[in-house]
Write a structure and sequence with these properties.
Elements (H helix, E strand, L loop, with lengths): L4 E7 L3 E8 L2 E9 L2 H4 L9 H14 L7 E6 L16 H9 L7
Parallel strand pairs: 1-4
Antiparallel strand pairs: 1-2, 2-3
């Protein structure tokens, strides 16, 4: 497969909604549920990163997709310092602010 897909991730308090798009078409989507017992293992929301990433990658593989098939990953969530609306490439500074909770925590 060529890099023609976009992975969309919408993390929530009890699930992670994911979808794969090809151009404007939603090819596949899923609501990946998380049990309270599983999420209670993590002190902070950012501590859930590897857990949620692994579940998403596993789902993709079950559906026949690899990370190498993606040309972009789009996500929602986290609280950043105020900035103009738009599309941003994620930077190390953004990740640092999210990890330390500069603006608080949000799934």
């Amino acid at each position: 497969m060529s890099k023609e897909y976009i992975l969309v991730i919408n993390p929530g308090s009890t699930s992670t909604k994911v979808a794969i798009f090809k151009e404007e078409a939603n090819v596949i989507q899923k609501d990946l549920s998380h049990s309270p017992e599983e999420l209670d293992k993590y002190t902070k929301i950012t501590d859930q990163f590897e857990y949620r990433k692994d579940i998403i990658v596993h789902w993709m593989k079950e559906e026949g997709y690899e990370l190498s098939d993606l040309k972009a990953v789009v996500g929602r969530g986290g609280l950043l310092k105020p900035m103009p609306s738009g599309t941003y490439r994620v930077t190390d500074a953004m990740i640092k602010d999210l990890k330390i909770g500069v603006q608080g925590e949000h799934a």
